[in-house]
Amino acid sequence: MGHLDHAAYGWLTPVLSYVMACIGSALGLRCTVQALAATGRSRRNWLLTGSSAIATGIWTMHFVAMLGFSVTGTEIHYDVPLTLLSLIGALLVVGAGVFAVGYGGNRGRALVLGGLTTGLGVASMHYLGMAALRMHGRLSFDPLYVGLSLAIAVVAATAALWAAINIKSPMAVAVASLVMGAAVSSMHYTGMLAVSVRVIPSDASLSGAPLMQFVFPLAVGLGSYLFITSAFVSLSPSADERAASAFARSLGAPVAVPPAAPTGSVTSAPPVPAAR
Question: For residues 130 and 195, is the Cβ–Cβ distance under 8 A?
């Protein structure tokens, strides 16, 4: 069995991956809060932004954490199509879960469906990413830890969507995003505890691309998307702020008053018809 190191660069990759998970979670929660207060096309756009932020944050968290993953006795490459599929799958499945909450009539049922769908989307992204690994050896997984990671993913996603529905203040959203980031990171490292590798020495070249040549630039690009979108969303007024602004404008609107009589003129009442 090959020796596995999950933090080859020390605390750098776990901390950075946690930060990316928190940013994606905070952005997704903020967008979902905005969506639930909006209607029509605006709601759809907020939900699209929120689901893409959550999926992007989780995917970036996974592969930043994988920067610190190494196996003694073999190089590690990544299958490009499978790696991209893990990103696309995360976007689609997380989007389905977020839209279930955004448009669900029955909030309780929508929350359960959305949490289950989003959680399984997070888990499928993780294990598709692991299936993309190419090395001189065979991967195997402990079913107990796999099941535990699935449970953590579903619970974390359900809790995050519950927070999006019930928590409105920016401070509460920030706290919820920290909790969700911790839960997503816990799911990742629980899933990694399930992994064992049997190294098979070989001089053959590995298929796929090295992490630093393919996945790292993609993760940097997606991380930049998160930061730019976060700046845009943070500058967007909330529903309460828009309502307060509209109310203030209504108070400041000019009130129609009858024109005043010219200075020095005398106004008289209309003549009253004489009684017969």
Answer: yes
Residue 162 covered by a domain: yes
- What distance in Å separates the CA atoms of residue 195 and residue 116, rounded to the nearest whole number? 24
First to last CA, the chain: 121
Mean pLDDT within 23-30? 84
CA dihedral 109→185→78→86, nearest 10 degrees, is 10
Residue 78 included in any domain: yes
| Token pair for 114 | 């959305």
Structural domain boundaries, residue 133: 4-237
Residue 260 belongs to some domain of the structure: no
pTM of the predicted model, to two decimals? 0.76
98 falls within a domain: yes
Over residues 4-22, the pLDDT tens digits come to 888 777 888 899 889 988 8
